[in-house]
Specification:
This protein is mainly alpha-helical and 403 residues long. The chain has one domain (12-198, 217-402): MFS general substrate transporter like domains (Growth Hormone, Chain: A). The chain is 82% helix and 0% strand. The protein is built from 18 helices and no strands. The protein has helices at residues 2-14, 17-46, 51-79, 82-101, 105-132, 139-159, 163-171, 175-192, 209-213, 221-241, 245-253, 257-285, 287-305, 311-326, 329-339, 345-361, 364-373, 378-402. The radius of gyration is 20 Å and the shape is globular. The two termini are 30 Å apart.
C-alpha cells in the first residue's frame, strides 16, 4: 500500500498544474452527486411521491443529458472545453438549490431538466479535457487520480446523508425540511468547484474553414459503435437498479437515510483505494481483461444481495459490488481516449455516453413500478442479466482491438 501511494504521489506531482486543478474541481462537484445519489429518491418518497413518478423525474434529467451531450461535445471540441465546464457548475448549483425551494411536481420536473443540461455539458467534456492535459504515459494515473478524487468527494456527499437525521433529532426540524436544507448546503459546495477551473489555460482550437464547417470531427466510427452498444446495455441494466439502491435498502430492510449514506460512503472508500491499484493491474493484464474480470465478479456479488438475510450482509455485498464494478472506470476512460484522436475525444466520448444515458433513462419509471407493485428484487435480476450480456460482448470485440 505504501509503495502504491508513493507511486501515485509521484504521478500526481508529475502532472501539469492544469490537470491537478481539473481533478480538484471534479472532486468538489462529486459531493453533490454523492448526496443526490443517497437522498433524492428517499426524499421524494418522504413527501409522498410514488416509485413510478420518482422514476419519471429521473428519466427527464437522463434523457435531457442524452439528447444534449452530443451537440455539446461537438461544440466543446470546436470552441473549447473550459467554458462548458464553468457553465455546467453554475447550472448544477442552480438546479440543486431548486430542491430547497420547490415542492410542486412540475417545478421538480423543471429542476430535473436543468440538471440534465448541466450533466450534458460536463459529462464527456471533462474526460476529454483531462486527457488533453496528460501525456499518454501519465494518462492512466491521471484518470486513476481523477476517479480517486471523485470517490473522496462522493464519500463526503454520502456522509451528508446523515445530516438530515441529525437536524431532525437535535433541533426538531421536520425531516423533509432537513433534507431540503442539506440540498441547499450542497448547492453552495458545488459552486466552489468553479474556482479551480478559472486559472486553467486551454489551447486554441482550429480556426480553419474546414474545421468550422464540418459537423463531425469523428472518424473512429467502428470503435464507437461497439462502445455505444456495450454502454447502452450497461446503462439499461443500471437504470433498473443502481439509482434505486437507497430506495431498495430502505424498503427491504427498514433502515434510515443516515445508515444508507454510511454504507454508500464506505463503498466510496473501497472505490478510492481500488482506483489507486488499477494502473498497475492494467500494466500486467491489459485494459480489456481488467474491465471484464472486475465487472464479471461484481455481477455475481450483485445477485447475492437479493438473498441477503439482513442489511449488514447486503451492505457488505453492496460495498464489494460497487468497488469491483467501478474500479475499472479509469482503465475504461484511458482505453477509450487512447483509441480516439485528440480532435474527436469530447464528441466521441459524448456519443458513447449518450447511448448509456438514453438506455439508462428508459427503465427508471418501469423499475419504480416493479419495485412498488410486483417484486422488489426483480429489477436487480434484470440489471445483472444485462450487465452479463454487455461484458461478454465487450470482451469478444475489444480484446481483438486491444491486441
Amino acid at each position: 500500500m505504501t509503495h502504491m501511494l508513493r507511486r501515485f504521489y509521484l504521478s500526481f506531482t508529475g502532472l501539469e498544474n492544469d490537470a491537478k486543478l481539473l481533478i480538484l474541481s471534479g472532486s468538489i462537484s462529486a459531493i453533490m452527486w454523492g448526496f443526490l445519489d443517497v437522498a433524492y429518491a428517499p426524499y421524494l418518497d418522504v413527501i409522498g411521491q410514488t416509485g413510478e413518478l420518482i422514476g419519471t423525474l429521473m428519466l427527464i434529467s437522463m434523457l435531457t443529458t442524452a439528447v444534449l451531450m452530443i451537440p455539446f461535445g461537438i461544440l466543446a471540441d470546436r470552441y473549447g472545453r473550459k467554458s462548458f465546464l464553468l457553465i455546467s457548475i453554475v447550472v448544477s448549483t442552480f438546479s440543486t438549490a431548486l430542491y430547497y425551494f420547490v415542492t410542486n411536481i412540475f417545478l421538480f420536473a423543471a429542476a430535473e431538466l436543468i440538471k440534465g443540461i448541466a450533466w450534458a455539458m460536463s459529462w464527456g467534456t471533462s474526460t476529454a479535457f483531462l486527457s488533453e492535459k496528460a501525456s499518454e504515459k501519465q494518462r492512466p494515473y491521471a484518470f486513476g487520480l481523477s476517479f480517486f478524487g471523485f470517490s473522496v468527494g462522493g464519500l463526503l456527499g454520502y456522509l451528508m446523508g446523515g445530516v438530515p437525521d441529525v437536524l431532525t433529532a437535535a433541533y426538531g426540524i421536520d425531516y423533509a425540511q432537513s433534507i431540503r436544507l442539506t440540498f441547499l448546503a450542497t448547492a453552495v459546495i458545488t459552486f466552489a468547484g468553479l474556482f479551480p477551473l478559472i486559472p486553467i489555460k486551454e489551447a486554441k482550437r482550429s480556426s480553419t474553414k474546414d474545421a468550422k464547417t464540418k459537423l463531425w470531427n469523428i472518424t473512429s466510427w467502428h470503435i464507437l459503435s461497439w462502445v455505444a452498444l456495450t454502454n447502452a446495455l450497461i446503462g439499461l441494466g443500471a437504470g433498473f437498479m443502481i439509482p434505486w439502491f437507497s430506495y431498495y435498502f430502505i424498503k427491504k430492510f427498514s433502515v434510515n437515510l443516515g445508515e444508507v449514506g454510511a454504507v454508500f460512503a464506505i463503498s466510496q472508500i473501497g472505490m478510492a483505494i481500488a482506483y489507486l491499484t488499477i494502473p498497475k493491474i492494467v500494466e500486467k493484464i491489459g485494459n480489456v481483461r481488467t474491465i471484464v474480470y472486475t465487472q464479471g465478479t461484481s455481477i455475481m456479488t450483485l445477485l447475492l444481495i437479493s438473498v441477503s438475510p439482513n442489511f449488514a450482509v447486503a451492505s457488505t455485498l453492496y460495498v464489494i459490488r460497487v468497488t469491483l464494478m467501478n474500479m475499472s472506470s479509469p482503465a475504461y476512460s484511458s482505453f477509450l481516449m487512447g483509441l480516439l484522436k485528440t480532435e474527436e475525444r469530447a464528441s466521441g466520448n459524448n456519443i458513447a455516453w449518450a447511448s448509456w444515458n438514453i438506455a439508462n433513462a428508459i427503465p427508471r419509471p418501469i423499475a419504480g413500478y416493479i419495485m412498488d407493485n410486483i417484486f422488489l428484487d426483480m429489477t436487480l435480476y434484470i440489471c445483472a442479466s444485462l450487465y452479463s450480456l454487455a461484458t461478454v460482448i465487450f470482451y469478444n470485440i475489444f480484446r481483438k482491438i486491444e491486441k
